[in-house]
Each structure stands twice: as C-alpha cells, then as structure tokens.
Predict the structure.
Amino acid sequence: MCMADDADLAHVWQERSQKARKPHKCGECGRTIEIGEKYCSVWAVGSDGPFQGKWCAHCDVAKDWLWSNCSGSLLGGVIEDCREHVSEYAGQAACIPALARIVIGAGRGWRIQRGPRTGQLMSVPTEPGPLQPRGAA
C-alpha cells in the first residue's frame, strides 16, 4: 500500500527546480546538495498548515515515479515508500530492479562506493517503468 493513500493532500503545492547557490540538505536521502547541483523545492499548505521541503534531483526521480504510479507521495517518505514497493512487488513487476537501485543509491547518499570513482556522485537515475505485473501489456 502506498503511504500517500492514508495522507491528507496539500491544498496548495508549489514546486520548482533550481540550481543550488548554497549547500542544502536533501529531505529524502539526507545528503548535502552541493553548490551548482540541481534540486527541487516545494512550498505547500496542508491540513496541518504550511510546510516546505527540498530534495536532490536523484530523489526527485523516485518522487516522480510515486506520483506516476501511486498518485502522490509524502515529503520525507519517498525513499521509504519506494523501499516498501520493492519489498511488496519483488519478482512481480518489471520495474522493481530499477526501483531497488534507486533505494540502494539513496541509502549510499548517491555516492559511488568502490572503484576509481569512489566517493563521486552517481548519475541521476532514469525513472523506472510503470508498476504493472510482469508480462502485462
């Protein structure tokens, strides 16, 4: 089940993509968004009042996947929700390996773990395909 299913939707949602002029912390994976890196910011008003958040371009791919497949996401819960989808649909949907790579990448702070590029930022992943059973058209 998607985390957004039990949530109250925001009444106002303003999202924008921009380049960082100073370091920011990603609200999803927790890593530092460096100067010059693209990130997304949102300002919204929900039933609990106004809130804002920022997330890196890498985590934005996961958020976009949830919005395409689950009709929404919770700020600060995108990676956790993706992790639950990987667990729930393992072996059942063709998109799950790509979604699992996103969950693993976020857990590593989107940094390469070994080899000559150790510590460098990974490329922004492509959005996994739709959540549908294997073999479905």
Summary: Residues 57-70 form the longest helix (14 residues). The mean pLDDT is 89. Helices lie at 57-70, 78-89, 96-107. The two ends are 22 Å apart (CA to CA).
